[in-house]
Write a structure and sequence with these properties.
single chain, 4 helices, 69% helix, mainly alpha, 70 residues
């Protein structure tokens, strides 16, 4: 559904903003979140064309020290 894609890009936008606020670059974010660089690049460039996987979201939130709901 297009809903999932919208949620994915919205979330990607939030994540990209948090990465910027931390002063991290894509390499830092990939290392800290333990996400693959390709995934990080997708997120930083506006998100995948589908929803982000739950595992990806939780790795991101852990990297920021947040819970998934924040």
């Amino acid at each position: 559904s297009t809903d999932g894609a919208a949620a994915g890009s919205d979330l990607a936008h939030k994540i990209a903003k948090l990465v910027e606020e931390k002063g991290w670059n894509q390499e830092d974010f990939a290392r800290i979140s333990q996400l693959n660089r390709h995934t990080v690049r997708l997120i930083m460039n506006g998100g995948p064309k589908r929803r982000l996987r739950n595992a990806t979201v939780s790795q991101c939130s852990e990297a920021f020290g947040l819970t998934v709901n924040e």
